[in-house]
Structure formats: C-alpha cells, structure tokens
C-alpha cells in the first residue's frame, strides 16, 4: 500500500537525484530510503529511477509520477487548509433568525464585523417572530435565533447578550407628551398597541404584568407583529405602546419616547441556539456577539463615569 511518506521520500530523491542528499534532507539514513523507494517501485510495478554508480535519473514513468505526486500533495494541503478553516468557523453556512426590532440595536454592527472576519461564511438572514424562530431552530432551518424574551425551551440554550430598558411611545400630539417622564398609573385610560401574545408570549406578559402592577389592565386597541408597525400605529394616533428603548433609533415622525418613572425590569435581546450544536460558525458568531456587546457596555460605563 502506498502511503504519503512514500511520496515524500520519492519527491526528495527525484528533486535531489542523489540518495545520500535526499536521506540527509529527510533526516533518515540512506539504506532505509533506498529500501522504501524499491518497495514503492515494486508496488507500482515500474521503475521510477535509472541508477548507476555515477548518477540517478528519473525514468519517463518517474517523471509522470513526480508530477502527479506534486498534485496529490497540493490537493492534500488544500483539503487540510479548508478543513482547518471550517474548524475555525471561517467557511460554511450560518442561518440567523431575528426579530425585526433587533435591527435597531447592535445587530447590524455584529453582522458587519462577522462578514469582515469570516467572508467565506454564507450568511442567511431570516426575519421571524420569537415563536417562529423557536420552530425554525428545532427544525434546523436556522442555526441561531435572536429573540426578544428569555424563552425556556427544551433543547435550546438561551443567553441575554444585550439588555435594554423599556420606554413609552406616544403620538407627538398626545396631551402627555409635554411631560419628560411618565408614570404607568397615568395610562390606565389609554388605548394600547401590543405585540400579539401568540407571537411573543413572554414579552406580551411582561407588558401586561407591568400595567397590572400599576393597578390596571391595558385596553388593547390594536395588535401588530412588527415593532416598526407598532410605532407607525402610534404615529397615526391609534394608541400608545411600551417598546424596547432601541426603537428610538427608528426615526419616525409623529412619535416621541418617554422614560417611565417605575422601576421597570429590563428586557433585551437573547441569543438562542441548539444545545448540542457544535458548529464552529455558530461558536464564532456567539463569541463575536458577546465581545461586541461587552465592548459597547464598557464604552457606556466610560461615558457615564
């Protein structure tokens, strides 16, 4: 059986055309090298070298075998390089699901940096609700989900990577818009625009619970799946909404945002992935997302000090 070491031995002799020099190059003694070359010739059934006391020359078969040996080793080197790049997450495909509001946070920056660092990874982006992402993860239609709530789902790992506060979105012409800060208790008679419970039950329940703690259950005037749609309906005067603070980056005329006086539990964006997914591309993206958000958090702390 021909092994890779036989090719290395053969190439050394073919390039040196001298068994002693080839042996020195390979850091072995000459007799074993000569024995390996004879064994290779026996395996192939052809002579690769013409040997005399004065010189060593390649036969015509040897010349062809040398060319092909170079090709085999080059192909092996390429296979090793590709395998190593895949192992580092530098090559492959990565399907990412995300809620629409994530695009007003650091997600675009994370995607940009990931594309720069891993240009050979094919990114497939899917805008999905939290519930749709859960199903897509289970069915391996996406590899990573970026969701709006701390879901608890068998088989999935979930981690908050970007906490943020909640704010109130009001029509610019609303009577309460003159106030710089609002209490939830003043909103009992207001019409609310909410995210549907079936699409994001955890986030929906968070809003309901906040209002109930303030002494009322919100009057739901309209539901909308997309956060920008919710903000658009607020601009149209159809109601008010409690939204993640990052929505303030969605510059929509006719809407103003106000902080709430109460101690509001933070919401945030969460990374979700299959617990036993060993994909290097998944690990690379998770690591970059964590690093980027930690860096932003440190900058915020510096600005605040």
UniProtKB/TrEMBL annotation:
Gene Ontology terms, cellular component aspect? protein-DNA complex
Keyword DNA-binding belongs to the record = yes
**InterPro entries per the record?**
LysR_HTH_N, LysR_subst-bd, WH-like_DNA-bd_sf, WH_DNA-bd_sf
GO terms assigned for molecular function: DNA binding; DNA-binding transcription factor activity
Q: Where is each HTH lysR-type domain found?
A: 2-59
Keywords of the record, alphabetical order, are:
DNA-binding, Transcription, Transcription regulation
Q: Do you know which Pfam families this protein is assigned to?
A: HTH_1 (PF00126), LysR_substrate (PF03466)
Please verify whether the record's keywords include Ribosomal protein: no
PANTHER family the record matches: HCA OPERON TRANSCRIPTIONAL ACTIVATOR HCAR (PTHR30346:SF0), TRANSCRIPTIONAL DUAL REGULATOR HCAR-RELATED (PTHR30346)
Q: Which family does it belong to?
A: Belongs to the LysR transcriptional regulatory family.
Please state what the protein is called.
Answer: Transcriptional regulator, LysR family
């Amino acid at each position: 059986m021909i092994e890779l070491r036989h090719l290395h031995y053969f190439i050394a002799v073919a390039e040196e055309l001298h068994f002693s020099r080839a042996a020195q190059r390979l850091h072995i003694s000459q007799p074993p090298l000569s024995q390996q070359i004879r064994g290779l010739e026996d395996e192939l059934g052809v002579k690769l070298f013409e040997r005399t006391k004065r010189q060593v020359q390649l036969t015509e078969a040897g010349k062809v075998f040398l060319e092909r040996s170079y090709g085999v080793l080059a192909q092996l080197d390429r296979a090793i390089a590709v395998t190593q790049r895949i192992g580092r997450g530098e090559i492959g495909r990565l399907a990412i699901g995300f809620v629409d509001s994530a695009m007003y946070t650091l997600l675009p920056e994370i995607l940009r940096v990931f594309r720069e660092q891993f240009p050979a990874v094919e990114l497939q982006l899917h805008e999905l609700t939290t519930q749709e992402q859960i199903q897509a993860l289970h069915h391996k239609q996406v590899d990573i989900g970026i969701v709006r709530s701390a879901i608890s789902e068998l088989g999935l790992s979930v981690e908050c990577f970007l906490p943020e506060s909640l704010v109130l979105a009001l029509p610019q012409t609303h009577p309460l818009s003159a106030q710089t800060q609002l209490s939830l208790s003043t909103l009992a008679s207001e019409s609310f625009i909410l995210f549907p419970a079936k699409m994001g039950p955890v986030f929906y329940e968070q809003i309901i619970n906040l209002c109930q703690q303030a002494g009322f259950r919100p009057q739901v005037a309209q539901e909308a799946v997309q956060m920008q749609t919710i903000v658009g309906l607020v601009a149209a005067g159809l109601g008010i909404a409690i939204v993640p603070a990052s929505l303030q980056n969605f510059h929509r005329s006719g809407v103003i945002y106000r902080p709430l006086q109460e101690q509001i539990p933070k919401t945030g964006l969460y990374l979700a992935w299959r617990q036993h997914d060993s994909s290097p591309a998944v690990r690379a993206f998770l690591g970059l997302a964590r690093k980027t958000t930690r860096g932003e958090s440190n900058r915020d702390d510096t600005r605040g000090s």
